[in-house]
TrEMBL record:
It holds the Pfam family SEC-C. This is SEC-C domain-containing protein.
C-alpha cells in the first residue's frame, strides 16, 4: 500500500496524498450524495406509484400500455416493466391532459415538503435522452445532450465507471437537490446508433415543430419514442418484428398508391399515403374522401402528415361508432395522443 508522501503511480508527479488520495475522497463524497439522492427519489417515486394504482386510473394504465409496448407478448414485455412503470407515472398524458406526477402533486400538495416539491418539478421536465460523455472529472462526469446540446454534470460516477470520453448512451437524468442521478436502465450505444436515433428524432421534431417550442418540450411529450428504441436494443426480436411490419406496410402502400389519381397535389399524397399505410380496407375510402374535402375547403395545411392522417382515421371511426381510443390510433402512426388530439380538434373546429 502506498504511503501518503510517496509519488502517485498515476504519473502526475504529485504525492499520493495530494493526488489520487484526494480523488478517492472526492469520489467517495460523490457516491454518498448519489446514494442519498437516490433514496429521496425512490421514496417519492414509491408514493407516486402507489397513488397511480387507484381504480380510477385503470383505464389510463391500459392506454399507456398500448402506447408504450411494441409487441403483444407478455413474456417479452415483462423485461421492460420497470421502464413502463416510469413511463406511466412520469410521461403518459391522461385524458385530463396531465401526467400522473402532476395529478399526484395537485392531490397531495399540502402533504409535501419543499424537497419533494422540487423533485416533482424536476420530474415534470425530465425525459429519456441521448447523451455523450464530454469529460470525466473527479466525482463528476460531464454529459452533453446530443439532441438539445445542453450540458449536465452527474455525480453518478459509479454507474458510469466504464464510460469514457466519447461514449454514448440512452439515459434519463433527474435532479435531486443539487445532484443529478440516472434513473431506469442506462444503455450504452455506439456512435453509429446514436447518429441514427438522433437523425430520426430530429426529422420527427421538424415535422411537429409548429406544435412544440423547442426540442426539450418535444422530448418531454414523446418520451415513449426513446423507450421504444430501448426495447429494440435490448431485444433483437422486437427490431425484427418492426422491420417486418414496416416492409408489409410499404408493400401495401406501394400497391395502393399506384391506384390513386396522378393529379393529386403533393400534400394530399403524403397524407393519403399515410392513411393507406394504416387504415383498414373498410374505412380507407371514407378517410380519403373526408381528407380531400377538408383540403379543398382549407387549402394548404401545416404539420406532419401522420398527425393529420391519425386525426382523420380517428374522426371517421368515431363517426362510425367504433370503440376506438386516441392511444390506439396514436400508436399506429407513432405520434403522441396529445398531437392527435390537437389535429382532431382542428378537424372538428372546421
Amino acid at each position: 500500500m502506498l504511503g501518503r508522501n510517496e509519488l502517485c503511480p498515476c504519473g502526475s508527479g504529485r504525492k499520493y496524498k495530494r493526488c489520487c488520495l484526494n480523488k478517492d475522497v472526492v469520489s467517495e463524497r460523490a457516491g454518498r450524495k448519489v446514494v442519498l439522492s437516490q433514496k429521496q427519489y425512490s421514496e417519492l417515486y414509491t408514493r407516486i406509484q402507489e397513488y397511480s394504482k387507484q381504480d380510477k386510473f385503470k383505464e389510463e394504465y391500459e392506454k399507456a400500455k398500448e402506447m408504450f409496448y411494441i409487441v403483444e407478448d407478455e413474456s417479452i414485455n415483462a423485461k421492460f416493466e420497470r421502464f413502463f412503470n416510469t413511463y406511466f407515472v412520469q410521461d403518459h398524458i391522461m385524458e385530463s391532459k396531465k401526467v400522473m406526477t402532476v395529478d399526484f402533486y395537485e392531490a397531495n400538495r399540502d402533504n409535501l415538503n419543499t424537497k419533494e416539491v422540487e423533485i416533482l418539478r424536476n420530474l415534470f421536465e425530465s425525459y429519456v435522452g441521448i447523451y455523450e460523455v464530454k469529460e470525466v472529472l473527479d466525482g463528476q462526469i460531464l454529459l452533453t445532450d446530443c439532441l438539445t446540446q445542453k450540458e449536465v454534470y452527474t455525480e453518478d460516477v459509479n454507474l458510469l465507471k466504464d464510460f469514457k470520453v466519447g461514449s454514448c448512451m440512452i439515459a434519463r437524468i433527474v435532479s435531486v437537490e443539487d445532484t443529478s442521478i440516472l434513473i431506469d436502465v442506462t444503455i450504452s450505444i455506439s456512435n453509429a446508433v446514436k447518429d441514427i436515433i438522433c437523425s430520426d428524432i430530429v426529422n420527427l421534431f421538424n415535422q411537429y415543430e409548429d406544435l412544440y417550442k423547442d426540442m426539450s418540450t418535444f422530448l418531454i411529450h414523446h418520451t415513449h419514442i426513446l423507450y421504444k428504441y430501448m426495447q429494440q436494443l435490448l431485444d433483437p426480436s422486437i427490431a425484427e418484428y418492426l422491420k417486418q411490419q414496416k416492409d408489409e406496410k410499404m408493400n401495401k402502400a406501394t400497391q395502393e398508391v399506384a391506384l390513386t389519381s396522378e393529379d393529386s397535389n403533393e400534400d394530399e399524397c403524403r397524407v393519403c399515403f399515410a392513411l393507406r399505410q394504416n387504415v383498414e380496407k373498410d374505412n380507407i375510402d371514407s378517410c380519403i374522401a373526408f381528407w380531400n374535402e377538408y383540403k379543398q375547403v382549407h387549402g394548404e395545411v401545416k404539420g406532419s402528415e401522420n398527425g393529420w392522417a391519425a386525426a382523420v382515421e380517428y374522426h371517421i371511426k368515431k363517426v362510425a361508432g367504433e370503440n376506438i381510443t386516441q392511444a390506439q390510433i396514436s400508436k399506429k402512426y407513432e405520434i403522441s395522443p396529445s398531437t392527435l388530439g390537437k389535429r382532431y380538434k382542428d378537424l372538428k373546429v372546421s
